[in-house]
C-alpha cells in the first residue's frame, strides 16, 4: 500500500485538479497572484510530479466505463457530496465514462418517519408495501437523484438523472425470498411486498448518454412488464448495470475501508474463489456478504474488477484509479 506521504501528495494534487476543473481558468493571473504562485514553486512542482506519475493510470482508464455505487456517509454529508461530484467531473475530464448508481435507505426511512408511515418486518426483513414503495420512488428519483445530477453540473460536468423505469432501464420482478428454519429444516416463502429482483438491464439509454458526453445518474427503481414499480437494492442494481455494460470497474463505496481479515487487516486483492473460502470460514460476515456477492457476480458477468472501498476517504475514487496502491479491496476473477 502506498505511503502516507504519497497519499497526502495525491490528495493535494486531486484537490488542485478538482478545483481547476470546477472553475473557469482566468485569461491571465493578476500580478500579486502570480508572485504568490512563483513563491510556491516547490509545492507546485510536487503537485505536478504527482500528476505526471498518474499519467499511466489516466491512460489505462481513458475511454473505459466505470460504474460507481454511491451511498453512505459520502452521500449524506454536504461537503463530501460536493467533493464526490468534483471528483466524478475530473474522471470524466480524464476520459473515463462514469455511470453512477445511488442508494438512499436512510433518507427513505427518514421520510417514512416524517409521514408517520409505519414499517413492518418479516423475519427481520423490511416489507415494502404500496405506501413504502411510493415514498421510496419519491425520495430516490426526486430529491436524491436530481440533487446528485445538480451537484455534478455545479462542479462543471453534465449529468442527467434517471430511474430504472426510464426506457425500461431496469426490468424487475417481485423478489422471491425463501428462508429455511435451521431447527426443522422447513422452508417458507416470505412476502416482502414490492422489493424487486432485477431480471434485465437495458443499456441503450446509458450508452446514448455516455456517447453524448453526459454522466448518467441512476436511481434503483425497477419496473416489470405490467408497469409495476419495485424498489431494488442499490448495490445489486449497480452490479447488474456494470455487468450489462461490461464495465472495466465497479466501485462500491461503503463506510468501511474494504474487506478485513479476522485480525482487522485489509485484504488489498481477492479472487472470486478466495471470497468463497472466506465466507465459508466465517471471515466475511454480516453486511459485507451481499456486497461481495454483488462484486463476485459482476466479475463473473464480465466486469474487469470490482472494488469495495471507503467512500468516507477523501478522493477515494481518484486514489483507487490513479495510484498504484488503490484505496480498498479489489475483487477479480
Automatic annotation (TrEMBL):
SUPFAM superfamilies to which the protein is assigned, alphabetical: Carbamate kinase-like
Domain Aspartate/glutamate/uridylate kinase per the UniProt entry, residue ranges: 65-309
GO BP term, example: L-arginine biosynthetic process
Metabolic or biological pathway, per its Swiss-Prot or TrEMBL entry: Amino-acid biosynthesis; L-arginine biosynthesis; N(2)-acetyl-L-ornithine from L-glutamate: step 2/4
GO cellular component: cytoplasm
HAMAP family reported for this sequence: ArgB
Protein name (record): acetylglutamate kinase
Organism field: Tribonema minus
